[in-house]
Structure formats: structure tokens, C-alpha cells
Design brief:
The chain contains 10 helices and 43 strands. By secondary structure, the chain is mainly β. The protein folds into 6 domains: 101 residues, OB fold (Dihydrolipoamide Acetyltransferase, E2P), CATH 2.40.50.200; 90 residues, Nucleic acid-binding proteins (OB fold (Dihydrolipoamide Acetyltransferase, E2P)), CATH 2.40.50.140; 84 residues, Immunoglobulin-like; 174 residues, Endonuclease, Chain A (2-Layer Sandwich); 147 residues, Endonuclease, Chain A, CATH 3.30.870.10; 80 residues, Immunoglobulin-like, CATH 2.60.40. Strands 29-30-36-35-34-31-32-33 form an 8-stranded mixed β-sheet, sandwiched between helices. Strands 9, 10, 11, 12, 13, 14 and 15 form a 7-stranded mixed β-sheet that branches. The protein has a 7-stranded mixed β-sheet with strand order 22-28-27-26-23-24-25, with helices on both faces. Strand 13 and strand 14 form a beta hairpin. The N terminus is likely disordered.
Length: 732
């Protein structure tokens, strides 16, 4: 029986006594903030997170509420909630009631569409697109979008954090794509739920992405796997034209091909492919480098204080207001070429970098410069007008060119001339003299050439004149640079945003922590990073985080609830905390000590829109050098290192007065009598004072003399046989 009430069509179900709109399309037409009741088949489970898409014969809609977490694909449900708009996606949330009617129902038949047909009428429904090819290469990462084409039309796939697709190889051949049609900020996208929603058109597929091994100055092996046996080939060359022809290896499911007879610091482009009968599985174009004949020296500089008492042998170096002078010294050494990508460049109140570049140009050095188009970059006007330079586009299709790198003599016949300068430091007074920053410098020709490839993709040409018609920035770039280098015997990885899945690589390295994780980054706005950090701490691994401030950190509440206050600090010193680095297992040589640093803030924009770069150095010495900078930054901003702070307070305590001058009183209550110990721990984790305390059943008061403590912040630890408590105190 149907009836109309105030212009709203409802239907009464005599089986369930539930009132609902006639169908989902009718519900979608209701005004926002209306209470709607819908009935349909659930199209996804937890693979898309909290959201559930529900479809009936008329259409589909998104439901969002944690109460739906137990719903699975094929559940037939009735749900009531409020119609809302979330970043242009129409959804029902919160859900006030929901009922599962039946389970295990057959999924609706996916609608066969083309990318151009993804629109509002399909939102929330299961769809199918034939003959799809992905434009990205590598492996799927969470919180990432991937462009695809089908019959000359373009579309977008979105993969959320925690999806079963994360870590899976992005297909390189034609596939049939299934997924739920969704919308985000007016962009319609396909949401594949798992690997079964991406069906290869070929019987043989590549199951592990091509990797490099046994790298020397004269060659390396390329390795990959396929799902079934196939013949093994690579097509390769020193250019993307793959002009050197074909090499082959043994047939099987595990494939290896060797490139030999190369030169040091050679970069090869290649495609791997495996053949089974009439079907072929092939990879996208990738590039790999041989080892350079350079020294492999890696130098690190900071513009803020370092604590060499935690050094394991090589002391960190602070360049107080002299990073600009050091940069100029490197520019003065250049013999042939200098390529620069810089976000912010202003000579005011620092040594004149423009003059150094002009002098280099006068002596015959070829200089090219890319700047961010949205910045004033006053120093550019001081450059010789003959020095070619371009700015990144400022149209709505682009965001920012946020790199801060310089490449010197990448193609010199002397491999020791080649220099890569990168890190977090812009070339301005505040960045060099006030804000906390780092610089890392590689004397290595292989990585210098890799960065030059990235530079020339933005430049649009290999010559001195930029080709703006071929120039690519932001989401228009491709993954075309090597990612693995061996520099001075150390493994070094390099990734550029947004083409290389940089955020996924950072998360991947974060999750390798076995004994310690230290994060010092200006911004963290991604929840997957925040939960990744708190999960590391939850696994019992000491974890310490310093961010610039809480106002720019939208995930601060996640970090604050997942980390003790001693382990989470925000920067309140002068200037801004502009570093963007992570240290993993700095003091554990039995693990894989590493540092990740560069221009990349831990944000979605950095990963999916901006031009950014990171390097990951796998080396205990470099990790310890960064740790020497982390200790004073973290402790001076209220963090405390080196304690077993993963123990939870299980005693009720208070301290007064706090701040204290000559003494303070510790009040605590015990359930039973036991011997107690009071420890005073400084910000580096050293116990500076220790004493026994009364441990009577009930309330206890202990007087603590603080006259012998220097002024500062300390952690008071009260411990017994079965209980521990921590309390931060201040000595005035």
C-alpha cells in the first residue's frame, strides 16, 4: 500500500513494519537533513572502511556510521538516518536504526559503463568498465588515487588505507574494472573493493613488481614473479625508447634477467615481460641505476643545536646561520652544470646565492632553475637575465612545486664532481636562520642523474631551453626515475611526488620499526600516518613525535589519545619546526636503521598534488646523526626520551606545588603496603635522582627536595612491585 504524506512517498512493508521511501532514488531526491529510510543490498564490507554502499533496483547510496561495521556484502538491510552531503558525496549519516533482513543475497549486476558516464545517476552503484589501463605503475598504496583510461576516456580509481589492494601490483595490461561509483569533491571515482574487482584480460599476470639485485658498477639483475609459467624477457635501453633491444632469462614463475657490460652511474629504462602461449604480461616502463664511481660521501647539516653526547662516533654538525655560505661553496665548485628546483628563494639577510649563481654562469656553468609559481621569490630578479628559468604553473590543475634540491655536474666525466643537495631547507633568511631545518648532500653521480631526470620532466626538455608544451608538474608527471641506489655501500631510496607513491613508502618504512621510532615533521594531516604511529607505540616500541604545532595538525587528537604526553611534543621555540624526517631504529644496528627526509610533509596534498621529493638512507651512522638533532628538538619542547613510558599509570598520584622551587610533595594512594621508589628523570631519559618512599596501604605523602635540581622539566616516576606511575614536574 502506498501513500503520500507531505509530498513524500513512503511504502509500508507488512513483513517488517518499516516505513521507507519508495526506493533509493526517491530518498536521494529528498532535501538535505531529511530523515530517510532506505532498503537495499549492501555492496561492500570493511574493505572500504566505515562506509557501506547500498543498492536497490533504482539506484545506490552511501551509509556512514560505525554502527554498520558488522554489515557484509550481500546483506539485505533497512536503515534510517539523516541525508547529508559530505564533500559532494550524498550519504545517510548518522544512522538511527538499521535492521538486517537477510544475508548472502546475490549482488546486483554491475552496470557496464564508460569513464565519461560516471555521474550522479550512478553514484553508490556497482559498475563495470572494460579495457582499462592504469596510468600509474608500482604497487597500490592507501589513501591514493590512480588514473586510468578506457577507449580514450579517463577515470579515477581510489584506494583507501587498509584496503586489500594496498601492496598489490598495479596492473600494466588491459583489465576489466569493477567497483562502486563514488564522488569526492565533485570528482566521480571507482572504488574497487579487492583484487577480484580488477580482472586481467590475460591469463598470465605479474604478481610482484620488478626489483633490482646484485647491483655493481657494471650491471644488475632484474627480478619479478608471474602467476603461471612464462618465458622471460626485458626490453631495455639508456633512453625510454629502449633502443638496446631484448634480453631473456629462464622460463618459470620466478624471473631474472641480467644486465651486464654497463658503465658506472648508468641509468637504464626497461620493461619486463613474460609470455605464456598467446598471452603476455608486461610491466610499465621503469628505470634502474648502476653503482656510481663517486666517493659516496653523505653529509648532513642542521641549523639548530645538536646533542653529540648521544653520538655513536660521528658527531652531527650545526651550521649556525651558515647553510647559505655552505651552499655557495658548493655552487663555487660547479664546473659544468647546475640544475635547481626551489620552492622559496630570497637573498634578504643571507649571503647572496644569486651572486654565486651569476658568477658560476659567467665562468661557463650551464644553469637551469625551476621555482614555485605561487611564490614571489625575490632572488630571481637578481639573477643574470640570461640564466633560463621557469615557474611552476598556477592554474587550478596544479598546486605547488615544493622541492628544494640542487644538482651539480651530474654528467661530468669525473664522478666525484656530481653533487645532489636536498632536504627541507628553502633559501630564505627565516629558513636558514630561524626555522628548524636539515640539509643532506650526496656526492654520487647515480642519484644526481636520477634527480636530473625528474628536473627535466618538469623542465620539458634535456637542453637549456624549457619546453613548456612538454613540461609536467604535479599529477601529470610519471614514475620515471630510479628508486634504488647504492651510495658509499649504503642502500638509498628516492621517491618523487605525486607520481611515485611517496606516502606509501613512508608508511612502509615506518612499519619496519623494531626498537624505536622518532618523527619530526612540520605537518601530519593524514589519519593513516597518525594511526600508523600509534600502532607502533601500541606494539611496545618506544615512539616519539614532534610536530610544528597542534593548530596545523588535524590528527593531533589521534596522536594525543594514542601516545603518552611524554612522547608527543609540539614545537614552541622561535620560528617553525620545518624538518620533515623520520628515524627508525637509530640505535639498533641489528635492525635496519634508516632516515627518511626531504621536502615532503605528511599530508595528502604532498602525496597526491605537490611536487616533492624524499630520500631514505639505510645506515646506522646517518640515523644516529639525525637522532643527535632530534634529541634537543624533542626535549626542548617538552618531550621525554628513553623511558619505559609504555607502562600505564595504575596509581592515583598528584604533585604540589608544581612548578616547584625548593621542594614539592607527592601524594599517592596504595591498595596494599609495599616498598616504593621515586625516580627523577631528565628530558634525555637519564635518572638524575632516586630515593625510597613510604608504601603504606591507603594515602601516602612524600616530600621531595628539589633544591639540587637545575631548572627545567622532569619526569617523576613512582614505582613498586606491581605498579608504576609517571608525572611531569617543573623545577623553577
Amino acid at each position: 500500500m502506498k501513500k503520500v504524506v507531505l509530498g513524500i512517498v513512503t511504502i509500508i512493508s507488512f513483513q517488517t513494519n518499516i516505513f521507507a521511501q519508495a526506493d533509493i532514488v526517491a530518498a536521494r531526491l529528498m532535501p538535505l537533513n531529511s530523515t530517510v529510510t532506505i532498503r537495499g543490498i549492501v555492496m561492500n564490507g570493511a574493505e572500504l572502511g566505515t562506509i557501506r554502499y547500498v543498492q536497490d533496483s533504482s539506484g545506490g547510496i552511501a551509509l556512514y556510521d560505525a554502527a554498520l561495521s558488522t554489515l557484509q556484502r550481500g546483506d539485505s538491510i533497512v536503515a534510517t538516518g539523516t541525508l547529508t552531503d559530505y564533500q559532494t558525496l550524498l550519504e545517510v549519516q548518522p544512522i538511527t536504526t538499521h535492521t538486517v533482513i537477510t544475508t548472502g543475497n546475490t549482488m546486483p549486476t554491475p552496470q557496464l559503463v564508460t569513464p565519461s558516464q560516471l555521474n550522479e545517476s550512478l553514484e553508490g552503484q556497482l559498475a563495470r568498465i572494460n579495457n582499462v589501463t592504469f596510468q600509474n605503475t608500482g604497487t597500490f598504496a592507501g589513501n591514493s588515487s590512480y588514473n586510468f583510461t578506457s577507449n580514450s576516456q579517463s577515470g579515477v580509481v581510489y584506494v583507501r588505507t587498509g584496503s586489500p589492494l594496498v601492496g598489490q601490483v598495479i596492473p600494466t595490461g588491459f583489465v576489466t574494472l569493477y567497483g562502486i561509483v563514488s564522488e569526492h569533491l565533485s570528482v566521480y571515482q571507482m572504488l574497487p573493493r579487492d583484487a577480484a574487482d580488477i580482472v586481467s584480460n590475460s591469463s598470465i599476470t605479474i604478481t610482484t613488481f620488478p626489483t633490482q639485485s646484485n647491483t655493481t658498477t657494471t650491471g644488475f639483475n632484474i627480478n619479478w614473479n608471474t602467476n603461471i609459467t612464462g618465458s622471460t624477457y626485458i626490453r631495455y635501453g639508456r633512453t625510454p625508447a629502449l633502443e638496446l633491444g631484448i634480453l631473456n632469462g629462464a622460463s618459470g614463475t620466478s624471473h631474472t634477467v641480467t644486465i651486464s657490460g654497463a658503465n658506472s652511474a648508468d641509468i637504464f629504462f626497461l620493461k619486463v615481460y613474460s609470455v605464456n602461449g598467446v598471452d603476455t604480461a608486461f610491466s610499465a616502463l621503469r628505470s634502474f641505476a648502476t653503482i656510481s664511481g663517486s666517493t659516496g660521501s653523505i653529509k648532513v647539516y642542521f641549523d639548530k643545536s645538536v646533542d653529540t653526547t648521544v653520538s655513536t662516533g660521528v658527531n652531527a654538525i650545526m651550521l649556525f646561520h651558515t647553510i647559505d655560505d655552505t651552499l655557495i661553496e658548493y655552487i663555487n665548485r660547479a664546473k659544468y652544470t647546475i640544475d635547481i628546483a626551489i620552492y622559496s628563494f630570497d637573498n634578504s639577510n643571507i649571503s647572496n646565492i644569486s651572486t654565486a649563481l651569476n658568477n658560476a654562469y659567467t665562468r661557463g656553468v650551464k644553469i637551469r632553475l625551476i621555482s614555485d609559481g605561487g611564490n614571489a621569490n625575490a632572488a630571481l630578479a637578481q639573477l643574470n637575465p640570461s640564466i633560463p628559468k621557469i615557474a611552476s604553473p598556477t592554474t587550478s590543475a596544479y598546486t605547488i612545486m615544493h622541492n628544494k634540491f640542487l644538482i651539480i655536474d651530474a654528467k661530468s666525466t669525473n664522478p666525484n664532481d656530481a653533487i645532489l643537495w636536498t632536504g627541507s631547507t628553502n633559501w630564505t633568511d627565516n629558513q636558514i636562520g630561524t626555522d628548524a631545518n636539515n640539509v643532506i648532500i650526496f656526492q654520487d653521480q647515480s642519484i644526481a642523474k636520477g634527480y636530473r631526470i625528474e628536473f627535466e620532466e618538469m623542465w620539458g626538455d634535456t637542453g637549456m631551453t624549457a619546453n613548456l608544451s612538454q613540461s609536467k608538474f604535479g599529477q601529470f608527471k610519471t614514475d620515471n626515475t630510479p628508486h634504488e641506489y647504492t651510495i658509499g655501500g649504503k642502500r638509498v631510496e628516492n621517491y618523487f611526488s605525486p607520481s611515485d607513491g611517496t606516502g606509501a613508502r613512508i608508511l612502509e618504512k615506518l612499519n619496519t620499526a623494531n626498537s624505536q621510532l622518532c618523527v619530526e615533521t612540520m605537518q601530519i594531516t593524514r589519519t593513516d600516518f597518525a594511526y600508523g604511529i600509534t600502532n607502533i607505540f601500541g606494539a611496545g616500541i618506544p615512539t616519539y613525535v614532534l610536530v610544528d604545532d597542534t593548530t596545523t595538525t588535524s590528527v593531533w587528537s589521534i596522536l594525543r589519545s594514542g601516545l603518552p604526553s611524554t612522547n608527543l611534543a609540539y614545537y614552541h621555540a622561535s620560528g617553525i619546526m620545518h624538518n620533515k624526517y623520520m628515524i627508525v631504529d637509530a640505535n639498533n644496528t641489528n635492525s635496519d636503521p634508516l632516515v627518511e627526509t626531504g621536502s615532503h610533509n605528511w599530508t595528502t596534498a604532498a602525496d597526491t598534488k605537490n611536487d616533492e621529493n624524499i630520500v631514505i638512507v639505510h645506515d646506522a651512522t646517518i640515523a644516529n646523526i639525525y637522532y643527535q638533532e632530534f634529541v634537543p628538538r624533542f626535549t626542548q619542547n617538552g618531550g621525554i626520551l628513553g623511558i619505559s613510558e609504555i607502562e600505564k599509570n595504575n596509581i592515583s598520584i598528584s604533585v604540589f606545588p608544581n612548578p616547584a622551587h625548593d621542594n614539592c610533595f607527592l601524594k599517592y594512594e596504595l591498595k596494599s603496603s609495599e616498598n616504593m621508589q621515586v625516580s627523577i628523570i631528565d628530558l634525555t631519559g637519564r635518572i638524575v635522582k632516586q630515593m625510597s618512599a613510604s608504601g603504606n596501604s591507603g594515602e601516602n605523602t612524600f616530600e621531595l627536595n628539589t633544591t639540587d635540581l637545575p631548572q627545567g622539566i622532569y619526569l617523576l616516576k613512582l614505582s613498586g612491585k606491581d605498579c608504576n606511575a609517571f608525572y611531569k614536574i617543573v623545577r623553577e
